[in-house]
Every structure is written in structure tokens, then in C-alpha cells.
Amino acid sequence: MHFATFILKNLTRRPTRTVLTVLGLAVSVGSMIALLGISENFRESMRDTFEKRGVDLVSVASGASDQLSSEVDEGIIDKVRAMPDVAGVDAALVELSEMTLREPRDENDTPPSSQVLVQAWLPDNFGYDDLEIRSGRKLTPEDAGQFRCMVGYKFAENNNKNVGDTITVLRHKFTIVGVFKSFNLFENGCIITVLKEYQELSGRKNKVTGFSLRVNKTSQNPDEDVERVRQRILSLTDKDGKPFRVSVERPQKYLNDAVHIKITKAMAWLISAVALFIGVISMLNTMAMSVLERTQEIGILRAVGWPRGRIVRMVLGEAIFLGMASAFVGTIGAVATTYLLAMSPKVNGFIEGGIAPWIIVQGFAITIVLGLIGGAYPAYRAARLMPTEAIRHD
Amino acid sequence: MTDGPAGQLLFASDVRKTYPDGAVHALNGVTLGVREAEHVAITGPSGCGKSTLLNLLGVLDRPDSGEVFFRGEALSTRRDLDRFRARQIGFVFQSFFLLPTLTARENVQVPMFEGMPLSARERAKKADGLLELVGMEKRAGHRPMQLSVGERQRVALARALANDPALLLADEPTGNLDSENAVRVLDLLTMLQKERRLALLVVTHSDDVARRADRVVRMKDGRVLDDGTAR
Hints:
The complex is a heterodimer of chains A (394) and B (231). Chain A has twelve helices and twelve strands. Chain A is α+β, with helices and mostly antiparallel strands and 394 residues long. Chain A has two domains: 174 residues, no CATH class; 193 residues, no CATH class. Chain A is elongated, with a radius of gyration of 29 Å. In chain B, strands 6-7-8-3-9-10 form a six-stranded mixed beta sheet. In chain B, strands 2-1-4-5 form a four-stranded antiparallel beta sheet, covered by helices on one side. The two termini of chain B are 15 Å apart. Chain B is built from seven helices and ten strands.
């Protein structure tokens, strides 16, 4: 018999309690893994988009917490595009807008409305090149003024829409001309339409929420090329000679500083911390009960020569086994939950199924620490038992 | 018998023990020696200090004063009493105290974790050998709940021998057994003591158990009343 076998057998003494503890802890750990996984997928999808599109710089209004709360004068776009080192500009007005999926049946009928992420793009955005057209076609400059749009495939699936169907956004009917798939999580659940007419509809004439760009890297040091363009953009002025109030950052820094990503992550950690605290208490309770019930046995183990250290290792080992089992069950639950959420029409494809391996590894590591914390006091109590008193214990 | 620690396997010199409330003087200066391969029985009325003495001799507890020597070495100076207990002393209890989640074979292996270093396979092999010695080889895979009380005590006896101790301490080893099982366990204890040249110290109320000993120590009120021989 190995020592690990001995520890495992101890856990079979009260199988129902062991299973309930594992399940309770699995909920805590699973919640943490799922929340952190979702927030990481969120960040990763944006990072992936910037990388695949070859974006070198990202610009939003200075001080804006994210693109949704940003507003930049469109005049800067032409100036940036005119720079010799700029290979391409991708500008967009991004908004959460009210949408209805059908027409009123009669004058008393109010169709249900929901929020949709609208991305209004310039006709020459390089982002178009990366969209895989599932059906229909891409938007062209000729679609301007026609109230046409493309929809992400998740949006189309969740709302049962296809090419030729219409949706009403900001009380205007848009005709779907194409269904696309993007490597960007959010684009798959959104609507892409023409910038000019959407600016009019949303009352944000000549405004975009941000832009990204590619830089021609011609020198020996590409970072210097990018930095040079960055500085030039920061020094641009509007028609009145005032500097544009924009921040311009490398994508990695933009993501690191993005307040919405930070908030998502902070919320994930906050909720995880509460769940983990409950998990620690559950573990502590289980292990304390387990030690109390086995007082006499622990006395026997001491009597046959087990030192305090081995008793501590035994109790902590049990706690770690419980933690590992919980992490395993929790991970399965978390992965399943993200896939189920990803399929839900409610989230419009904004959540991606699956969890990054390092989040799972982190989950296991945290659970082991949690097991050690939850098992520490019971282990200390067990180790302090005097064999003669413990043997007499009923 | 009480000349001093020299030549004794175990020697308790004027040991005293008072329980924390101070009201009960469990041992009032007991001096007692046990030689190698000697079979000693300690008898006396309930509360006379037999079990307290056994606990002190088995280093499960420390005396308030006095000293316990093992092969002439004062045990109060040792820092590794757990290891000492694991390797030199085997315990047999009245209530067997087998671990319920483990099989007989696994129960016998429990003390081996602190004995001489053995692999898991070697531990299992040794446990099988000990179970065979006590006639329990066919029940090696059974858990305590699946065994009769007599069988449990035989498994407990095998466990006590796990690390080939020099001294076996038995606290009322037949106290929970019917007469038939009691005789069987006693026969086994006596046989093992002789064959393995173990020192055996048995605390008992039973005259039948005491009669088998080389020497019977009678106690009363925490003192040795009579340190004589039974036969």
C-alpha cells in the first residue's frame, strides 16, 4: 500500500460527504475557471483580431475607457491615411443600438426589441478582407445610402436571419446582404453597416469611435517605424489647429489598459474570490469533521509510531485530493458551461466556448492552495492530539 | 528484577504520573524492569494505574518524574520517540483499533510507513507473511467489519509485529473476546513471544492471562504491590 492509497481510502469512509464536498468545491472552482476563462477569451479574441489583421496601432479618444464610450473626429482619418508610412486605416463607429427583428403586425403591436452591437465601417476598411462570407456578399461603396448591412453568422443563427431578410435598427429597416464569419468573437454577433448613413442615423455625424492602422515597416527597426507614426498621429491638429484628443497605442498596451477588459477581469476575480472563500469554508468544515470523527484512529496512528508530520501530510493530502477532484469536476463543468453559453442566443456569440489551458492550470493550482488552507487547521489539530487521550476518545 | 536498567530491555525507575486536575495520582513511584524475551503480566483492580504504566512504558505519555530506560538508554533524552515507538514497540489493544477503510493486509502495513524503508510491494509481502503467522492469510483482503472479533484481534496482533519490535505491549488483549477466541489469541501471543523472543508485557484482569506470564506484577493505588513470579 502506498501512502497515497491510504489517503484515498480515508476519503471513502464517508462517500456521500466526500462527493458533496467535491461538488460544492467544484462549483466554486468551476465558477472561477469559467469566469476567468470567459474574460480571457474576451481579451484573447481582441488580441487575436489585432494580430491577424496586422494592426500596429489602435486609437480611441483620449480618456475613453473603451471604444464604445469613445468619440473621435473623423477628420483625423484622412490625415492619418495620407501619412506615407501608413499602409491602411480601419475606422469604425461602434455602438450598442436598439434592434427589432420584425415589423409590427398592426398598429397596436410593439415588436420585442433588444440590443445589438453595430459596427459602422468605412468602405475601404481592411477588416473586410478577413471576413469569410458564408452567404451573400460583402458591403461595397455602392451600398451607401441603401440601408444595407452584413451580419455575423452567430447573429444570423441566433436570430434566424439570412440574406434578403431585414432588421430594424434605430427605427430604420436594414436589408441583410451578407452573412460572414470573422475570427473576432464580437463581430460574429454583430451587424456591420456603412459608416456614413449610420453616423446620420445615430446623430454622430463625422464621428467615429476609433480606428486602427497598419504601418509600412521599412527600416531595420520596425518598432521605431511604428513609434514614429504614433508620434506623428499624436501631433496632428484639426482644422482649427487644435490637437485631436486621441490616444494612440500598440495593440498590446491598448488591451492592457482597456478599462472594459480590466473591469471584466476584476469582476471575474471578485466573484471568484467570493466563490473560493465559500469553498475554503466548505473544505475546512469537511476536514475538521473528518478529523474529529477519526480522533481515536489518529491516536492509534500516533501510537504505532506515526510522527506529527505524517499526520499533517495525511490530512493535507486528503484536502489536496478533494481539491484536485473538485478542480477536475469544476473544469469539466466550466468548459461545458462556456460552450452552452456560447450556444445561447442571449449572448449573441459574445462568449466563446472553451477555456485557455493556462486558466485551467491556474484553477488547479488555486484549488490545491485552497485545499491546503482548508486543511491546515484540521491538520494542526490532528497533529496536536495526544495518543493516549485520542485513543480514549469516543 | 528491579536492580537497575543494566541488563533490562525496559526499565521504569520511580515513575510518577498525576493527571492534570491534580486529584488523581495515577502512579506513585513505580519501579519495574522487563528483560529481553520475558513475559510479564500486570494485574490489579481498575484504576490502579496499570494502563497509565503501560502508556509510559510504551512512550505514549511522559512521566511527571522518574525515568524510563530502553536497553539502558534514558528515553527522555531521545528526540525521535515516534520512530523509536514504531520500530521497537508493538501495541495490542482491547478494542483492536483497526482502521475500518483498510483491509486486513493494509492495516498490518500501517506501522511499516515508519519502520525500515520498504517498497509498497515489500510492505504487502511482509504483511501477508505476518497474516499467515496469525492464521489470517485467507482473510487478508477483508475489511475489519467483515471479520469476527477474534479475527480482528489476530490482525491487530499481526499489525503489532509489523516492524519486528523487541517489545509487545498488550492492554487487556482478550477483554473483548469470548473464551474460545481468548484462548486462541493467548496461545498465539505466547507462541509468538517464545518463537520471536519478544518481551511481552500484558495488562490484564484475567487470571488465565496472568498465569501464562513468567512474572506477575500486582499493582494497587498507583504502586507495585508485588513483583513476583507466577510459576
